Amino acid sequence: MTDEAFIHIVRVDIDPEHEAAFNAWYEQRHFPDLLACPGWLSAKRFVSVGDGPKYAAMYEVAGRWAFETPEFLKVKGFGPFESLVKNFMRIQLRPMSGPA
C-alpha cells in the first residue's frame, strides 16, 4: 500500500458485562483522542447485523504515517479494556476509483 489515504476498520467483541463502559469510553475518550492525532480524519462506529465481531469502528486515515506519530502511539489500543477485548479483526482498504 502506498502512503495515501485509506479506510481502517477495526472489529471487536467485548463481554456483555463490560459493554456499557466500553461503549462510553470509545465514544467519549477514544474517538476524541484519535481524532486529535495528525492524519486521523474521521471516525464512526457500527454494530454488526450478521456474523463476526459485534462492534466495528471505521476510520479515514491520511496515510500509513499516521500510525507512527507520537500522538497516536500514546492513544492506540483499547486503553482500560485492552485485556477484555476479544476477536480483534482489522482491515485496511484503499479506494479503487475516485469519490462517489
Automatic annotation (TrEMBL):
It comes from the Bacteria. InterPro entries: Dimeric_a/b-barrel (IPR011008). This is DUF4286 family protein. It comes from Bradyrhizobium betae.
